Amino acid sequence: MNDFDLIDNTMMSLSGHSVYPHDVLTVLFCLLTLSQAYVNVALNKPAYQQYPNENDRYDASNAVDGRKSDLGMYGGQCAVSQNRQTATWWVNLTTIHSIHHITIYFMTNYKPFGPSNDITKYFLGFSVYVSNTTARLQGTLCYKDDNLTLDTIPAVFTTTCPVHGRYVIYYNERLSGVTYPRGYSDRVSTDLCEVEVFGCPATGYFGSNCSVPCSDVNCQYCHIESGTCQGCKPGYKGHRCEMVCEGGTYGAGCKETCGTCRDVNQCSINNGTCLTGCDAGFKGDLCKTVCDRGSYGYVCNETCGHCRDVNRCSIFIGTCLTGCDAGYQGDLCKKSCDSGSYGYDCNEICGHCRDVNKCSIINGTCLTGCDADYQGNLCKTLCPVGTSEANDMSIEKKIKESDIKWSYLSIYGTVDSLKNFKQGLIMGASYLIKVK
């Protein structure tokens, strides 16, 4: 099929007759002129359709591959979905573009559109949106069919929509409980052979050849025909984008709020980057992410101490809000217990360890054993009298260190007598302890 055959088929689809009425010729001339002036920014861009068929022949990308010589279901040039209550197809232009008009080639199955073509009814009631996301209702409604019929819907449809956007979305529906006009199908499907989105390949320009820069220096998106600013560059606002974002705001229209920057006046008006870094407790380029568990301070570079609950470590200054874990003390819980203490906040006193420096700061265990006369892990329990050599040694040690030795020697004068006296004291002391 050559270009003239395609035009001929198009004219029949538009008019329903094989002749060329003056108004249809005028529309065709305008379309050809516009197509030459603007670029098809949808060509070979990523596409998606709801409820796709399993056969790759009907893939969503067929509608943006530039082929439209075969408008039949089995020609491999159309995007065809399953028949359902809703049909959604979109093309991702990958960046925001200045759009002028959108042209859709519906699948015809080689027949003129009209009541005699069974596929015509599946397109009635369709809508076209331009959005910056895949959510159609967040974008601009370019066209909503509420008056076309089986006799008037064209096989090639064009709507002018001078807006900016990243996604062009085709949508149709047949919802339960809704009464639709006569001639509408019970279900809908995509059935799009080509979707062409004509506009400027780059933002910041307008005119028939997209060669005229937007008149306002800080304008990013201007009307593709008039040049009137429709959107400022990030960091600016106002009708002519003459105002800079106030401190603490940034982005398109100054609608974004800066993160927790160390200096809020050093927040980039363009992208929100904190130029002098984050305040204590936050991290990331935008300083909107709190420190991970167990870290705190500027850029979250500090490590929390031995908090009783690591989730209760202040992300700002590292204070352990519920106290220290066993063995540590101080606001940051980074200091070990002093010698002779242990436990939570170092509030416990070590027992009679053989070496007080070997008392566990965690649970008070005497790591090298107990001192004389004491037993147990904590060495806080006295040994039973007479059950160990340690008792005798302890008593003997105390006697040796007393003044009794010297007093006795001064009276009796012999060491042997002192030994007998000492043995008597040991026996007497043991007896007194038992009685007590």
Describe the fold and architecture:
This protein has 436 residues and is of the alpha+beta class. It folds into four domains: 3-201, Galactose-binding domain-like (Jelly Rolls, Sandwich), CATH 2.60.120.260; 203-266, no CATH class; 337-382, no CATH class; 391-435, no CATH class. The chain has helices at residues 3-15, 22-37, 389-400, 404-412, 415-435; strands at 39-40, 47-49, 86-106, 127-131, 140-144, 156-160, 164-173, 192-200, 205-206, 212-213, 219-222, 229-232, 236-237, 243-244, 249-250, 256-257, 282-283, 289-290, 295-296, 302-303, 328-329, 335-336, 341-342, 348-349, 374-375, 381-382. The longest helix has 21 residues, at 415-435. The N and C termini lie far apart (121 Å).
Task: Give the second-level CATH assignment, the architecture of the largest domain.
Answer: Sandwich
Number of contiguous helices: 5
Q: Looking at this structure, what is the CATH superfamily of the largest domain? A: Galactose-binding domain-like
- Structural class by helix and strand composition: alpha+beta
Number of domains: 4
- How would you describe the shape? elongated
Unreliable stretches covering 5 or more consecutive residues: 1-36, 389-415, 429-436
Which percent band covers the strand fraction? 15-25%
Rg over C-alpha atoms, rounded to the nearest angstrom: 44 Å
Helix content: 10-25%
Q: The CATH topology of the largest domain, please?
A: Jelly Rolls
Assembly category = single chain
> What's the total count of β strands?
26
Major pleated sheet: 8 strands, antiparallel
Instruction: Measure the end-to-end span.
Output: 121 Å
The level 1 CATH classification of the largest domain is Mainly Beta
Mean pLDDT: 84
